[in-house]
Amino acid sequence: MTRLVDTLARALSALAFAATVALLGVVAWNVFWRAVFDASGTRVNLMFPGAIDAAQYLLLVAVFAALPWAERAGFIRVDILIHRLPRLLASGLERLWDLSVAAFGAACCWLFTLETLETFARGDATQDLQMPLWWFTGIAALGSAALALMGLSLALTGRPPATEGGLT
After folding, report:
1. Does 168 map to a domain?
2. How many CB atoms lie within 10 A of CB 102?
3. pLDDT in tens, 7-63
């Protein structure tokens, strides 16, 4: 199970990277062309009309797609406390944390899945770009499911040794 969960987390991490790059691109494009628009006295307008839609949904994708790998790599913690605890207690707290993350991921997955089914049935679309809204809630549901599986996997098998650089 660990290898499958790691593979899913890596794939979602790549999606999170792509969404982040796209988000930065949308924002940079509009900032640049807003300056040109203002400098030209409103004659040149090449701003992306769906920029707000794109930014908010790309951010949603980036966050939820990145969560499973972030859980595997280890969220920020107070190492000074953990290193002073007896090894058995520290390990138990790590596993309790991972189970808590798994429960959180499962709850988010459930809620996003319900939202995905509802938006799909209604045919809801984003305001400006008219993209199906269920795409984004579906990705959030998948990211949440992967987060739940990662938390459960880490709780059952323990954490891999820490490495620098993230995606190793």
Report:
1. no
2. 21
3. 999 999 999 999 999 999 999 999 999 999 999 988 888 888 899 999 999 999 999
pLDDT tens track for 82-110: 778 898 898 888 899 999 999 999 999 99
pTM: 0.85
Amino acid at 153: S
What's the domain range around 152?
A: 2-157
Q: How many domains does the chain have?
A: 1
b/e map 47-80, b = 16+ CB within 10 Å: ebebbebbbebbebbbebbbbbbbbbbeeeeeee
CB 82, CB 29: distance < 8 Å: no
